[in-house]
Amino acid sequence: MLKKTKTRELIKNLLKNSSSPLSAQDIFNLLKDQNITLSSIYRTLDTFYKNNIVSKESSHDNTIVYSISGDNHKHYLECKICHKTIDLGFCPYHKVNEQIFKKHKFLVNEHNVIIYGICDNCNTTTTK
Amino acid sequence: MLKKTKTRELIKNLLKNSSSPLSAQDIFNLLKDQNITLSSIYRTLDTFYKNNIVSKESSHDNTIVYSISGDNHKHYLECKICHKTIDLGFCPYHKVNEQIFKKHKFLVNEHNVIIYGICDNCNTTTTK
DNA sequence: CTTGTAAATGCGAATAATTCGCATTTAGGA
DNA sequence: TCCTAAATGCGAATTATTCGCATTTACAAG
Fold this sequence. Notes:
Arc Repressor Mutant, subunit A, three-stranded antiparallel sheet, alpha+beta, DNA-binding, homodimer, three-stranded mixed sheet
């Protein structure tokens, strides 16, 4: 079972309310008046990850960012060229995950919050 | 335009033939008799990424791993507990990507090769 | 086939990200 | 209230990634 601590509550709330995935360093900066160490943040995120409370992925600059999992998680389209993001507003993977569960009895944890690609604007600009 | 070099061809072939995503260090180890630097490998992977030749994601131990993109790319289910992988054998995201393109004119680059979750075996074992 | 030049690479150092060890504190069950 | 395993702070160690600069190379132009 998971102990309820100040550090964990703070980090979970940050992630719940954030409109984008956060790195350990991001969280550290946001909590810098709270006397919480970077190593604790890393450990907390790791614990959350193992308990399926958060998902993680590589951001475009190669740091790892975390998002809250669960029912009302979000998804973003991020352009690899201009890095603008579009809030998808829904999870496009529900059906896929159900199919995977039916076929393989494999329970997918929601993740892959950032969906990378090329936005309309960059596409028409670069191919012209 | 992208120059054709020995380093690039070697790395591309490795990724094409690999049955799992590879880290920069993995590639370095596999090519250690070829006199290629780690920094070149990083630069090459970065170039490939920007040109949509490879996709990248965070592996379970927080290093970044790369996979070849394109028509015959693969997908794997990886259990967060035992780390066993299952080859999905097809891309479950084609339809989703098409829908996203229709709605947002956003061209998703294939990625998210590793799909994390809990496998049947670990699930029945841990919940018992 | 030569030559010029921008791009790619090797090398090694610098930086940034992540993990670890250990002493201290704390949550929560007994 | 007490006990103990788990969580945290602190700082050092390790690992991953990036950078600067000199040298080499792909390839387009002549």
